[in-house]
Amino acid sequence: MAEFSIEGNGRLEKTAIYYNGEQLDGVKEIFLNLDENGAFDAIIMYMGTDDKPYTKNIFVDYLENVRTEPPGFTDDEARSLSLFTVISEGDLAQTTILRNNEEQFGVVSVYVHIKAPNVPQGGGLRAFFGGQKEIPDHPEFKAEIVYREDNGDLTTEGLF
Amino acid sequence: MKPRRTLAVLALVVAMFTMVLPLDSLAQRRGGGSFGGSRGGSRSFSSPRGGGSFGGSRRSAPSRPSTAPRSGSGSTSRYGNAPTQRNSFGGSRMGSSSDYTSRYGTPRASTRQAVPGATGTTNYTVNRYGGMGDGFMMGYMMGSIPWYWSMPFHPAYYYSRPYTAMNPDGTTAIYPGTFQWGTLFFTLLLIGGVLFIVYVWMKNRRRRRLGYTSGSSSYDDGNDVGAKSSFM
Predict the structure, then answer these.
(1) Predicted local distance difference test score (pLDDT) of residue B42
(2) Nearest-CA distance from A101 to chain B in Å?
(3) Residues B65 and B104 grouped into a single domain
(4) Which domain holds residue B24?
């Protein structure tokens, strides 16, 4: 059972990704779409230690060549950050959601899409004249969770 | 980065090489047009066959028969690269003086000047129009053509060589070279192209550097330890 956590304050510059207790590095994109109706998309894109891009299913695939680094946030810093954790085996039935180490109940859906902007990596004549191999993206940071209240109403909250 | 650098250096070298080419001479070799073209094999400077006074190998061709009066002294002294035969200091030979005067009008001043050569002194009718070409014309006559006249930063680069024509009295009429708009155009095109390439290169370089800088300051590098963000 893999434990995947996102800690941050809502800004990409202060967002750390943890996988089984280790802080990952070189992450380019995180996409989580968990829905009580059965949707379970958990994708991570990262640049591996061999400088090649990898796209993996977080809770199913083995994160080969993933970069890790020592924890970046101190305890003081961590107090001002939110920690969102998903513990799962890859299916919705065996999935636990935690916010700041508190298990959550009544979750309808979780949507997290965090994407770092691409840095143009060019080369050759086209890059020399301004052409880029990659179209630079805008950073994206969307993290929402939807709860079902006791009265049946749905409440949407930001995760960070 | 390496291919771009190589390309930029290559473009610069090609552009610089092209800029130092004597474009007017090349144009004259091509022929065509009343001015600046060659008239068959009668021209004796920078000819493609290598027999001119400028460029090519030195050779001693017999001077053409002339009805021009010779000075009795028969001086053999020469100064600079003084021509050894008539019309050999460069320039385009016209059919007649009217080719030039019909286009540029009558000269402001015409003086006769004797230029001593190995085979004797040749009388020239130097026609002045008061422009910058006059000075260059005298330089060509004297045979002293500095190397920087062939460089784009010198005005002489944009002027053609003097034009010559045989007068009925046997003297050789010399007219100043004319401004070559084509040379200017192509030179500006080349310089502009080089500047454009350098500008684009600098711009891309700066943009790339800024991109990486923001990436490393806002997010994380691949190698930094204890970074605040996992994203790169």
Answers:
(1) 35
(2) 20
(3) yes
(4) 1-30+181-220
According to the model, what pLDDT value does residue A54 have? 94
Quick check: B85 pLDDT over 60?
no
Residues B125 and B158 in one domain: yes
Handedness of CA B214, B220, B225, B229 (dihedral sign): positive
Q: Mean pLDDT lowest for which of A151-155, B33-37, B143-147, B199-203?
A: B33-37
B111 vs A126 pLDDT, higher one: B111
Over the range B163-189, which residues count as b (16 or more CB within 10 Å of their CB) and which as e?
bbbbeeeebbbbbbbbebeebeebbee
In chain A, residues with a C-beta closer than 8 Å to the C-beta of B216 are none
Q: Show the tokens assigned to A145.
A: 């969770």
Residue B93 to residue B71: CA distance in whole angstroms = 24
Touching check for A21 and chain B: CB below 8 Å? no
**CA angle (A125 as vertex; B214, B205 as ends), nearest 5:** 30
Nearest residue of B to residue A30, measured between CA atoms = B231
Residue among B4, B219, B224 whose CB faces A13 most closely: B219
Nearest CB to A24; choose among B3, B225, B230: B230
Q: Is residue B10 located within the same domain as residue B69?
A: no
pLDDT in tens, B158-188: 999 888 888 888 888 889 998 999 999 999 9
The distance between the two most distant Cα atoms of chain B, rounded to a whole number of Å, is 98
Q: Which residue has the tokens 């600098």?
A: B202
Q: A57 with A3: CB under 8 angstroms? A: no
Q: What is the β-pairing status of strands A95-99 and A102-103?
A: antiparallel
- What the block records as the tokens of B41 is 């094999």
**What is the rounded distance in angstroms from the CA atom of residue B222 to the CA atom of residue B216?**
9
Q: Are residues B130 and B190 in the same domain?
A: no
Q: Of the ranges A103-117, A119-133, B48-62, B213-227, which is most confident?
A: A103-117
Number of domains in chain A: 1
Does the structure show a pLDDT above 60 at B28? no
Minimal C-alpha gap between A51 and chain B (Å): 9
N-terminal to C-terminal alpha carbon distance within chain A: 24
Q: For residue A122, give its domain range.
A: 2-158
Assess if residue B227 is contained within a domain: no
Establish how many alpha carbons lie within 13 A of residue B38's alpha carbon, considering only the half-sphere containing its beta carbon: 19
